[in-house]
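Recap quiz, item 2
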Amino acid sequence: MTVFDKIYAVVRRIPRGKVATYGQVALLAGNPRWARVVGYALHVNPAPGEIPCHRVVNRDGRTAKAFAFGGEDMQRLLLTQEGVVFRADGTVDLAACLWDGAS
DNA sequence: CGAGTGACAGGAC
DNA sequence: TGTCCTGCCACTC
């Protein structure tokens, strides 16, 4: 069980309509210092159809610019379709849609 | 094997 | 309030 596997497992647990921050995923994966690794893990993203990487945003609720599976608009669209609330500035309303990790 | 880089976070200035 | 600097882990050159 590598760190990547843990990260993927956590990301896969993110329920539909909710989002998690890199720090949150890193913490659930076992170590809060793995935020960068989380980013790298999602960057390589071996299973785009299985790992909802679009549900992972930075601590500001802003989506990553270097998104590789369809662009920022695609990520925003996918999240919106799942019920995630976006603010006017294009950021996710973390106060309402942040995954608590209890699921 | 050593150095550099990266979808980040947190604390400091 | 906003921006800069550092720390961490894994991966590539």
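Helices of chain A lie at 3-13, 22-29, 35-44, 72-82, 94-97.
Residues 21-23, 26, 32-43, 45, 53, 56-59, 63-68 of chain A lie near DNA strand B (CB under 10 Å from a C1').
End of item.
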